[in-house]
Amino acid sequence: LGIKKFAYDWRAEHIPTFDEEVAAMKRHGVEMTAWWFPSGLNAEARAILDCIKRNNIHPQLWVSLEGGPHLRLDKAFESTPEAQAAHVERMVAGVKPIAAEAAKLGCKVALYNHGGWFGVPENQIEIIKRLKQDGVDNVGMVYTQHHGHGEIDRFAELFPKMKPYLLAVTLNGMIKDGDLQSHELGTAPLGQGDQDLRLLRIIKQSGWNGPVGIILEVTADAEARLLDQLYGLNWLVPQLDGKAAGPKPTPQTWRAPAKP
Length: 260
What we know:
Blueprint: E1 5-8, H1 18-27, E2 31-37, H2 43-55, E3 60-63, H3 81-104, E4 109-112, H4 121-133, E5 139-144, H5 155-162, E6 166-171, H6 178-181, H7 183-186, H8 196-206, E7 212-214, H9 222-240
Parallel strand pairs: 1-2, 2-3, 3-4, 4-5, 5-6, 6-7
Helix pairs in contact: 3-4, 5-8, 8-9
């Protein structure tokens, strides 16, 4: 597929083959750009850190300390400034030891927006700023579009706020309120969303330059789904410069749900 960077969303059964998978990626010239990381320094976290050290790689560690439903702005923050500050402090305490271990290996930690309070970008920015006050400077954020449906309307305002802290962005087909309607609409491939071009244009015009990912969020055949994402991206990119893009691609792995 020509993909040369990889964010590793592993499961427990993969732990015995960590080293084999890293070796295979090295043989094929694939960079381990990011590695999903537990919310604390448990045995699985230690296995990851040990593998990173043995293989002399330096992936971003993508961390989500809390998850939950994808919050809209009216529910994104705690009810009082005191409660908001206390929540920030709890998350700072959780991130600090992970960041310390990552720093020993030359790695950065990226806060991952997996829903809930922790997934709200402004809250992540507060956590990062608070960590910097304590001298922790290897923590940023990764923004995953398909967890950000509630931020579509304010994305033009939000992205410049995130830009100084962004370590990566992952793209998705974005349909307004798609996540509230069905899983299919919430995980559409690139090119199938009514918001895709506008959101990509905001990212490009911001001047941000960093890793951009496509995501395999469904149980469809991996190769076919990634191709759907790539075809959609290739269709959208010329349009960012006002060029004709040809016919819209027809996905192999996705169909828009029938309207009721």
